[in-house]
Amino acid sequence: MGTGSREENASKQRNEPSIVVLKDNNALVIHALDDAASRLGLHIGQPLANARAMCPDLRVFDADVVADAKTLSDIADWCDRFTPLVALDSPHGLFLDITGCAHLFGGEAALLQTLVRALARQGFAVSAAIAGTSVCARTLTRQATGIIVADGGEAEAISSFPVSALGAGEAITTGLRRAGLKTIGDVASRNASEITARFGARFSTLLAHALGQGDAPINPRKPLPDYIVEKRFAEPIATDTMIAMTLSRLADTLIASMEKQGKGARRLEAAFFRTDGVVRAIMVETGRPVTRSAVIDRLFRERLDALADPLDPGFGFDMVRLSASRTEIVVQEQRDLDAHVHDNDELAALIDRIAARIGGKRVVVHLPQDTHIPESAVLAAPAQHHLTAAMQAEWPARVESEPPLRPLRLFDKPEPIKVPFATVPDGPPHQFTWRRALHAVVRVEGPERIAMEWWRQDGKQLTRDYFRIEDAEGLRFWIFRDGLYEGEVFDADGSPASPGWYVHGLFA
């Protein structure tokens, strides 16, 4: 008896209409609904109070907008297997531009059937349609599923649909019904200027696109790669050996395609499509155009080995795709007689391998900047993109047998020190306290006076005096006084204040 009761309750819950509500303008409205609720005449955007009046037994759930957006994005990633041009139609839909792709799946009908069945197996209720314009396809999905409209047949296909299928908003839909225009065909039969004058140009454009009269371009989530190669499997693969072998073969095909146009890859992405709908994408970048498949194999091997979240095949990958999203023309150079060229190639390859393991932003080179401000004199830039500039950079020459004028490395932020007094108003300190340790000054070199760039100081034109300091323990510091004693620094009340002292770096 207990088991039967649970089964009856579960069956009853499945048959009860369910809706998801979202707060809009201080009122709860329907954000999503199931087929049972739709058959009762409920629709998206309807106030919850009205829905309860029509159906007191409604099952109501609160919307989770963030989770819904993440799920929709995951579905969009999975749909990349059909076309690289996938756009979000938030909050519930996707646009897929399948121009030139349908024949790869046996035609439009076979593609549509494959997509709907695969998503249904993943637990999603899908309404899909194919039409010549994106607006017409979206209108079709609001009333039926599985419809394929030939070019030129958009107006006839949607003429019998209610005006709410256009998704123009509650106010316009109500206005059309009050005017006696209950179907899209009724609205289309009226003069366009009359519709524009009554409901606005935006609605007129929406109606024209739904009828197949022009179309607004979709905005794909990802830019179309320059080159794409992929491999589909009748039986999913799951072993590291098969994955590596597949990537190697795809790399050979990709390099051959680029070689015909004299190009090399700078940014590569490998996408792995699991049978349960999960998609994992891995990207690598290179400092110079890659023209050999062995280099691609090595970079992806380094990347896969270094993943903090290892590649999980689950029940297997049924498709692997390799794409080059950024390519450049390969410039032919004389390389046989120039030893420096080979050294540069080896250095670039090493940087690419390290970047594949720890990330390109963590491998940097330092470039000199034309400024006398110490913290701005060096710019840290990604090594992959600035290697040539770093090798050609000209740094200030150092005088032989002389100590360096500045530390090799500065603190990220100058650290304050306590100076009880200076030998003279503009002179160095006699002693100072840094990090709770007292340092007695025995040798001093300086000052080196630096005036700050006035356009970056928010009106505070401060002057720094830098000193090279050595204490009794032999430690050498680079310290500065921020401001002068002649009234360049002021307190909040406007009275003169003592300038501050800071340590900016340490000498070896």
UniProtKB/TrEMBL annotation:
<comment type="similarity">
    <text>Belongs to the DNA polymerase type-Y family.</text>
</comment>
<dbReference type="Pfam" id="PF11799">
    <property type="entry name" value="IMS_C"/>
</dbReference>
<dbReference type="GO" id="GO:0006281">
    <property type="term" value="P:DNA repair"/>
</dbReference>
<dbReference type="InterPro" id="IPR043128">
    <property type="entry name" value="Rev_trsase/Diguanyl_cyclase"/>
</dbReference>
<feature type="domain" description="UmuC">
    <location>
        <begin position="1"/>
        <end position="144"/>
    </location>
</feature>
<dbReference type="Pfam" id="PF00817">
    <property type="entry name" value="IMS"/>
</dbReference>
<dbReference type="InterPro" id="IPR001126">
    <property type="entry name" value="UmuC"/>
</dbReference>
<keyword id="KW-0227">DNA damage</keyword>
<dbReference type="GO" id="GO:0003684">
    <property type="term" value="F:damaged DNA binding"/>
</dbReference>
<dbReference type="InterPro" id="IPR050356">
    <property type="entry name" value="SulA_CellDiv_inhibitor"/>
</dbReference>
<dbReference type="InterPro" id="IPR017961">
    <property type="entry name" value="DNA_pol_Y-fam_little_finger"/>
</dbReference>
<comment type="subunit">
    <text>Monomer.</text>
</comment>
<protein>
    <recommendedName>
        <fullName>DNA-directed DNA polymerase</fullName>
        <ecNumber>2.7.7.7</ecNumber>
    </recommendedName>
</protein>
<dbReference type="InterPro" id="IPR043502">
    <property type="entry name" value="DNA/RNA_pol_sf"/>
</dbReference>
<comment type="function">
    <text>Poorly processive, error-prone DNA polymerase involved in untargeted mutagenesis. Copies undamaged DNA at stalled replication forks, which arise in vivo from mismatched or misaligned primer ends. These misaligned primers can be extended by PolIV. Exhibits no 3'-5' exonuclease (proofreading) activity. May be involved in translesional synthesis, in conjunction with the beta clamp from PolIII.</text>
</comment>
